[in-house]
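Re: weekly structure request thread

Next one in the queue (415 aa):
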Amino acid sequence: MNMQSLITRVRSILLKPKETWPEIATEQDSLSGIYRNYVLILAAIPALGTLIGTALFGIQIPMMGTIRIGFGALLTQALLSYGVSLLMIYVMMLITESLAPTFGAVKDRLQSLKTIAYAATPVWVVGILHLLPGLGVLVSLLGLVALFYTFYLIKLGLPHTMQCPEEKSLGYTITVVVISIVLGIILSFLVGAISGVGSLSGKLPGSGDDVHFEKDSPMGKLESWSKQMEEASEQMEAAQQSGDSKAQQEAMQNMVGTLMGGDAQVEAMSPDELGDFLPQNLMGMQRSNFSAERNQMMGLQIAQAQADYSDGSQQLRVEITDMGGAKGILSLAGFAAVGSERKTERGYEKTYSDAGRIVSEKWHDVDGRGEYSVVVGDRFVIKVEGQADSIDTLRTLANSLDSGGLESLADASSG
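Done, posted below.
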């Protein structure tokens, strides 16, 4: 594909997708050909745009001035971003192919790559705007629009490339999209973290064995996740080549577990064990409507216990959720310093970090009702909700549970 053909394809997939997808589906091509003639070129646009734009204009911070970053650090970040983009296309190709039978589609790796690669065109094209860092907000908005258009292109393309029934294309698309969002968020954390190390060490990350992170540090966890992701990708590719359906299912479960930042081998607590953390009497209130269960999905276990507590004047619901093998996603959220705050005339909502724990508060002044939840040990979520005197009551009740015991169990599972 020469440059003129490339431009024609970009224009047609963006402006005439319904007419273009049938043409793409029947094209005789190869995996290496699509990567070489399309993916390698377009995926470089956002990385180059950011590299050149930041090098020329720096990073402008309102009321503080402009920050200049060394070209070595910028180059490291650009190379990492580019490499991750190529990796993500490859992994999403494998996932799209693996999910095909679930939605009545035909498993075909070449058609799967066509779907993901050509649908990603809007995101790559918008990346050229990174040449002008001053357009920050506009770039973000257009990037969001491009992302949604990519999802729309996937839905349009699946019936042609993967021969997916029209009525199942939406479910197929949603599944692919959810996995891609989780993967994209985690990989963006990884790129930012590693590129920062590169700028401090004066060389590309991984160029020697003397650069490493402590196992339990946020960076150590991200480094471990990246290795698991690589292993999961290799396992999935081997399973596809073997033709063994059982191996393919196990590889898919392992991939989902890795994407969630967790470990499919970590078992959630049994209903009896988790239920023990909800006592019959809690701060003078009696327990009722108790229930506990454990469920498994895609090889990952999640357990939950809940009960109502009342003292006659207050009626509260208490829940404890064990994320089990998916606990890593909470750890990554903590690393990302998740936080927000919103206040209205009726009440407020906020999420913040308290001593390393993610905390969420919601309070409604009119009816005196609220919700308080806290993440313990990057694995357990304690939530208390209902009518109370104040949010302090809900907070005190949550903290009165054996969070130390839960935290020790989380530590033991990760050891």
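The first strand starts at residue 59 and ends at 61. The chain has two domains: 3-211, 271-413.
Next request, please.
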